[in-house]
Amino acid sequence: MDDDTQLYDEFGNYIGPSLEDEEGDLSSSSDESDEDDQWLDNVRAARPGDRTPESGDERGHDVDMMDAAAVGEGAIVQFEDKKFFRTADEVYPDAETLVEDEDAQPLTEPIVSKVETRRFALADDSPACTYTKEFMLGLAQHPALVRSVALVGALHHGKTALVDLLVQQTHEKRWGATQSVRYTDTRKDEQQRRISLKAQPMSLVLPDLRSKSHLMQVYDTPGHVDFSDEVTAALHLCDSAVVVVDAVEGVMLQTERLLRHAVEQGLEICVCINKVDRLILELKMPPAEAYYKLRHTLNQINEVLSTALPPLAPSSAGSPPTERKPLRVSPLLGNVCFASASMGWVFSLESFAQMYAERHPGALDPQALAARLWGDVFYSAETRRFTRKAARGADPGEQRSFVQFILQPIYKLYAQVVGEDADSLERTLQTLGIRLAPSDYQLDVIPLLRLVCSRFFGTARALTHMVVQKTPSPIRAAPLKAAHLWSGPQHGPVAEAMAACDPTGPLMICVAKCYARDDCSAFDAFGRVMSGRVRVGQQVRVLGEAYSQEDEEDMSVQKVSALWVYQSRYRVAVDQAGPGTWVLLEGVDDKISKTATITDVAVAGTGTVGAKLGREHLHIFRPLHFNSQSVVKVAIEPLNPSELPKMLAGLRKLNKTFPLCTTKTEESGEQVLMGTGELYLDTMLHDLREMFGNVEVKVADPVVSFCETVAETSSVKCFAHTTNQRNKLTMIAEPLDRGLAADLEMGVLCADWPKKQVESFLQTKYNWDLLDSKSVWCFTGAHSNSGGPNVLLDSTLSSETDKVLLYDIKENVVQGLQWAAREGPLCEEPIRGCKFKLLHAEISEERVYRGGGQIIPTARRVAYSSFLLSTPRLMEPVCKVEILVVGDCVSRVYTALSKRRGHVTHDAPMPGTPLYTISALLPIIESFGFETELRCVTQGQAFCQSVFDHWQVVPGDPLDKTIELKLLEPAPVGDLAREFMVKTRRRKGLGVDVAVDRFFDEKMMLFLSEESEATDIFQV
């Protein structure tokens, strides 16, 4: 031990003699190396991610080489300094390495985002109903017990509240007395705006006054005038319309338009006068004056109905038009009921008479009493008799039966509840057989009033009974419905099956709308089964609007993957659906743009239609016929250009879900979105950003669509040669008869009528001579891609033109005119209200020289030249504005209208109210921001709605080059046509002025230079 201590100092360092035995050193170092290698192998075996290097392992070979190099240098390498893997710079020598000092991702954001399903609609997961699903589907199997009705009316007149009343009656789920659910407003923006933007259906089992249940297919529609296209789609599938009218506001602009539109669709009309309690609580009218107010509203409706019917009812192709009797509404006819949906009550004359009969069993006949409760019928308490004249010395208003037996009890009931005297109210309710809990008397006035009225009037059986009695069942309505919708022959096997509502006939479904899923990932088609049965898994043929037997491109075969009964917030799955019912189909929407026709793949029927059917029986249902037009447009582009495909996909979805939405790509490349008004465009842009496109877009200022027309007949005969100089067409243009363009658009004159029927119509209404009426070649504007309403006449003489060769190129000339009518020469807007006459035609006898490639551009060019020499003018859309304003602000409304080229057409006080109704005409291009300005100048005491009314000529000559347009200054009224044309051409990427050499042949230019008079007109 002493020797060992001398070899080391006090700090443990070796101070002994040097070791000269090299062999011993080598052996000791070898032992240490073996121990290190063994330790390293043990460490590698303990680490699961490492593996023992092998001879063929490149990574292991590199490690061995590095270890060997380190050992070869004689250096001692610690374990933590050894290199076992290549660095990132060695593996990726050209890569750039970034080192972040801080985490850029906030702590509130998870590293892995949660997958969330976006939902844009309110959903209700199969709520419990007062009836079973099997009972509802059983009623659907009997079309005689089915009724299809649409609730239509002006904005805020209570349509959705009426549907809430029906939903609350049929669903076990209850909501508060003061809560407005708006069950059919499924969109979140609808709930925020408190207006309906989309039409939503409901299928409910409701009993009538005789406790007989019927399947009520109710369509709740928007009331805003911008969404009239949704109303048109709903009326397309219904058999009647219940017009909801506010008792205070009466017949508004939208109410009148909807009445006329429903009559044009051939529907039965019922009326529900809603918000009757406003006469009591707001206007505080005496009962006698309230009766006169209600009668005045009905008189207004009947006045509209008396003028709503056209002289000829809509008819199908090949069948003569039939006269229709004017409609009339009256409580005595059973097609009028009275309601206050916010208070939860509805009554009719029969339902109120039945209430008296139930309180006096056996003493009264409900129907006989109901016949004496309206009109100039008076009741004398002394004689206990009904008379047509009031007793002497008595107040006629107080003795009138409707006032005495209906209005006065309602007034007294309201007075008792509003009076806040609980003891008196409790005694009154006990006499009526109504018992409330003690806590109910502590409610506020409105909830208590709703509760008392619901107990007094009961459920909405009066509304159901009116609809059941006045709405035809699908079996009764099938012949008229098939004749109105079906574009094929009315005496064929398909039309006969639909007229008979035959469940064994060929499958025919009329699709009117497409509804998006809650997450907007897909669409489902909604339609009405006209005949046959549709089943899940069935292969069907989908025919689009552009389908015809000559062009079958718009046709596809799809598989029905699911069927539902659509209930707005939920869906009821079914296996099959029969005629007369509404059904929602999944898997058939790929080729549907707006409407469609769904039929069997084999197109065969074995029922009453008899023999097998072939392709010759394939026709489509007529597309929707709207009472408005899309004349307001905006240009849009994505904020990020790389998201253009996403925006285009969103536009295609918008085009599918909005019936009057139109998308167009201009030659300049900009995307144009067209709608009926500002709110309509705002809703579409919201859906594009949030629901369908999920893309942010930039929106230009709104503009309007224009039309081009002529004011005079062409000054000279215009001609054009084909490019091969072997054909020549001569044509003139002149204005169309006033009103004929509107008849073509409204369907009063149909292009598919038989030729003799068209001739008779033109000769009778517009005094056309026999020769012109027989020479009609075509009407443009019958289809959406054929421009505005125009007429092409064949005025050639057989002595000058070879008629055989002329009729050989007829289709090419018509196509050339339609091309010209779509894009006019002034600013590529549709041509409207022009009559083109073909005067002469020189046609090559060789067919190869008169093909479509030669004739179509020539016909377009000669139409343009004749148009430009007929004093061309620009037309702008004009809207009809209805303004509700207090009497003190009428002058301010006049001032606001005069600033925007508007003028008042009607001004009258609203009977029984302190309000005035002002009707005016206003150019739509001047209407942007008018509603906001009106509210500002009247301090919020005015409300207005505007809708497209007609087209009018813009003042001024658009080709007058002497007009100087100044920047940032409004043009005078006489220069507006020039300003609109120049700005439209600039926006579309065209030149400032019309290029003359583009529309006139060289020979035509030489001819015009020789005609002094024509030259003057041409130079202007």
What's the total count of β strands? Answer: 34
Structural class from helices and strands?
alpha+beta
- Strand line-up of the largest beta sheet: 14-13-19-10-11-18-15-16
Q: Mean pLDDT, rounded to whole units? A: 86
Terminal Cα separation, in Å?
Answer: 131 Å
Portion in helices: 25-40%
Shape, please? Answer: globular
Q: Determine the number of helices (DSSP H or I, runs of at least 4 residues).
A: 33
Largest β sheet strand count, sense and barrel closure? 8 strands, antiparallel
> Which runs of at least 5 residues are low in confidence (pLDDT < 50)?
21-29, 46-72, 310-321, 604-611, 1013-1020
- Radius of gyration based on Cα positions: 40 Å
- How much strand content do the residues show? 15-25%
Folded structure, characterized:
Helix content is 34%, strand content 20%.
